[in-house]
């Protein structure tokens, strides 16, 4: 299959994303994503552009040759998430790089998915240049949806059950202990986690301590006043 045919089919079958295609073919999605973002000769580079020649090469001719018309139609008929656009997505398989999603913290302003790994996701709020990295569980706790929420709608009142809070606290402890933070920062974070009294506070602590990253490089979180250089 030529790159032009791949591009035509991806346009025709709009519900088939590169991520879904890679999962079906057993191809490394991150490799294909990097190929997609390669500069196109003779064109000004933009993050929205897709280098279809590089994508086709990364997927491989042998893999593309297995895609019949029936395969494209079958993949297109499958829902990417199994949910409607307004539903909260509860599995990481429903996300891919470049997708626009909404979290409870910003009900009507979308985040863009910048990068995905097997354990973390990097997102960036629209009209900002500050990426935010979260592990999958923390991200899913934020109630990601493909559709904006009404910011004026009253949130349902509910009490957090002790067992639920305990589970979130245990997950927060495991996340901090498994991070690359210094021993001092881990201790400080664990103390704050132990003192937190709600799920929201635990999520805020994780957001504050987990290293911020861009798609290529992870950097250490900013030091607080009084810490040595």
Structure report:
The chain has 229 residues and is an alpha+beta fold. It folds into 3 domains: 3-77, no CATH class; 85-154; 158-211, Single alpha-helices involved in coiled-coils or other helix-helix interfaces. The protein contains 10 helices and 4 strands, in the order ααααααββββαααα. The chain has helices spanning 3-12, 18-25, 29-36, 52-59, 61-64, 69-77, 136-141, 162-177, 183-195, 199-209, and strands at 100-103, 106-116, 120-125, 131-135. A 4-stranded antiparallel β-sheet has the order 1-2-3-4. A hairpin with a 2-residue loop joins β1 and β2 (106-116). α1 crosses α4 and α8 packs parallel to α10 (199-209). The protein is elongated, with a radius of gyration of 20 Å. The relative contact order is 0.10.
In terms of topology, how is this protein built?
Blueprint: H1 3-12, H2 18-25, H3 29-36, H4 52-59, H5 61-64, H6 69-77, E1 100-103, E2 106-116, E3 120-125, E4 131-135, H7 136-141, H8 162-177, H9 183-195, H10 199-209
Antiparallel strand pairs: 1-2, 2-3, 3-4
Helix pairs in contact: 1-4, 3-4, 8-9, 8-10, 9-10
């Amino acid at each position: 299959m030529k790159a032009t045919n791949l591009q035509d089919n991806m346009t025709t079958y709009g519900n088939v994303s590169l991520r879904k295609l890679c999962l079906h073919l057993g191809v490394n999605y991150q490799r294909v994503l990097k190929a997609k973002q390669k500069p196109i000769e003779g064109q000004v580079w933009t993050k929205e552009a897709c280098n279809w020649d590089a994508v086709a090469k990364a997927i491989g001719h042998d893999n593309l040759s297995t895609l019949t018309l029936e395969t494209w139609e079958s993949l297109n008929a499958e829902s990417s998430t199994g949910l409607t656009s307004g539903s909260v997505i509860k599995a990481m398989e429903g996300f891919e790089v470049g997708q626009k999603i909404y979290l409870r913290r910003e009900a009507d302003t979308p985040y863009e998915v910048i990068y995905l790994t097997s354990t973390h996701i990097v997102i960036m709020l629209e009209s900002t240049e500050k990426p935010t990295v979260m592990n999958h569980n923390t991200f899913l706790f934020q109630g990601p949806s493909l559709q904006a929420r009404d910011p004026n709608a009253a949130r349902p009142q509910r009490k957090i059950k002790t067992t639920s809070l305990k589970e979130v606290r245990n997950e927060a402890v495991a996340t901090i202990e498994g991070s690359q933070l210094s021993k001092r920062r881990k201790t400080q974070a664990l103390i704050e986690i132990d003192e937190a009294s709600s799920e929201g506070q635990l999520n805020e602590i994780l957001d504050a301590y987990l290293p911020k990253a861009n798609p290529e490089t992870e950097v250490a979180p900013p030091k607080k006043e009084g810490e040595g250089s």
